[in-house]
């Protein structure tokens, strides 16, 4: 494939900590892998490609492709949510300008630096993940509270018997003990 028909990289952004540590050969490899994955992601499709301890996530929206190089532990759902947000923001700022790009890194775009910092936490990219984390934290607190009540020697049955909030029928559903 000739160079002019290859995908143009609008912006190559790597975490600032990594950028200083990377040799030019590593940067070139990232560009190569990114361009290869972008070429092989059909329009309207998403895909993830495993490379050692990293995954390259790719989302092609009508020819405009967003790529994310993430460690293996970054949730896939969050990765694609992030890529979707980046594509939305790009199209809001630049429209179809990418279609006429002749070179890589043709447009400065500060949003990517902000996004890189913000989305280090996958919950920032995926609101459902954020809600799930909050529910998990609440569940842990609830279990600790129940455990501490039971640790004081109080059985759930004795608490039910002492309760004035429950009718006799509610205290013993089906004649069964609760604990």
From TrEMBL:
Its main location: membrane. Residues 127-179 form the V-SNARE coiled-coil homology domain. GO terms for biological process: endoplasmic reticulum to Golgi vesicle-mediated transport. One of its GO terms (cellular component) is membrane. It is found in: Endomembrane system. It is a lipid-anchor. One of its GO terms (molecular function) is SNAP receptor activity. CDD domains: Longin. Residues 1-114 form the Longin domain. It holds the Pfam family Longin. The keyword Membrane applies. InterPro entries: Longin-like_dom_sf, Longin_dom, Synaptobrevin-like, V_SNARE_CC. SMART domains: Longin. Keywords: Coiled coil, Lipoprotein, Membrane, Methylation, Palmitate, Prenylation. PANTHER family: SYNAPTOBREVIN HOMOLOG YKT6 (PTHR45806:SF1). Belongs to the synaptobrevin family. This is Longin domain.
